[in-house]
Amino acid sequence: MTRDAPVLRTDPVRRLLDAATEAFAERGFHATTTRDIASRAGMSPAALYVHFRSKEEVLYQIALRGHQDARQIVADAPAGLRTHGERLSAIVRDFACWHAGEHTMGRVVQYELDALEPDHRAEVILLREQIEDDVLGEISAGITSGEFGTPDAKGAALVLLSLCVDVARWYRPDGRLSPAQIGDLYATTALQVVAAR
Amino acid sequence: MTRDAPVLRTDPVRRLLDAATEAFAERGFHATTTRDIASRAGMSPAALYVHFRSKEEVLYQIALRGHQDARQIVADAPAGLRTHGERLSAIVRDFACWHAGEHTMGRVVQYELDALEPDHRAEVILLREQIEDDVLGEISAGITSGEFGTPDAKGAALVLLSLCVDVARWYRPDGRLSPAQIGDLYATTALQVVAAR
DNA sequence: GTCTATATATCGATAGAC
DNA sequence: GTCTATCGATATATAGAC
């Protein structure tokens, strides 16, 4: 039986990205040194520059992969569900739950984008807007079908996206709510927000 | 007619605190240099150290005053209002509106606390918990009186506080919604969140 | 209380051996 | 591809003139 875990564990790019994600989430991009990243990955300070051109490129790779993961979560959530209420609930549940379970990644993805170079930032923001469009589209469809009563689709989308994203700020693994419980709370909240006023 | 604006404008402590608030909000605490703060205040790099012991003490003074302001907003909002719905709406409206209008201060207050020394951070977190207790108390009172139907006071408080705080992250002065419009949207959302499920 | 000049430390990134 | 050693730039904070 072949095992690929050792191969993954010793992949230096993966190790550096994971180490940098932790460090950026804890202390922020500018407060994190390349020495700290390399040290967490069990490497010398110079080793980072064999795999990345700069500290900014490390952040770019993390932000890109993080946004791609988040987009996939939102795109997959409503699969197989028919009503717009079920679909929106699933999207908000999974998106909130992801920001809790992956709160280190989420913190980097949501709070360190200003440190990216303009071209990299623009590329990442495109992915963000796709996620926002997915949520707004589901809300608008529910309003058109008569299932949702709110007259303000953009306002509801703003509220629900903001809620999910902010989970990465306040979530603590030893807190009162598990990622799944947060997902349940936010799925319920989603239906309240799109209800008639 | 006496004018006090010139006096205020030349108060070096106030000028440095305002300059630092702007810089911290734009680039974060660690990415901001003491030279940048002093330069924005129209002073030499060394002048900052006449009024503050360190860059961290500048952040501490900003975080302290910002939290005191926020607490005052939440405490004053329900004055003169009788029903718990009116009172909670007013609290959420004013708190969200404050995070929009004072988004530079809000960003520092909400996102740079990790840069504080342990003693300073602990002092500021006490003020945060008072604000959280104010909101939770109003929700619990509304549930006890039968005015609110939600069975989950802590969940509702978590959702509403998170929403208001996150305004500081996404708000832009040239955006679609004014601070007052954001307050209206969030006041409406508050009543939806505490309604029966 | 503000300035110029600088001490001291640490950073991002590179050079060159193995 | 990883290491040790280090360069050049820049940071916080201080010293001392005015």
TrEMBL record, chains A, B:
Residues 10-70 form the HTH tetR-type domain. Gene3D superfamilies: Tetracycline Repressor, domain 2. It comes from the Bacteria. Residues 33-52 bind DNA. PROSITE patterns: HTH_TETR_2. Keywords: DNA-binding. GO terms for molecular function: DNA-binding transcription factor activity; transcription cis-regulatory region binding. This is Transcriptional regulator, TetR family.
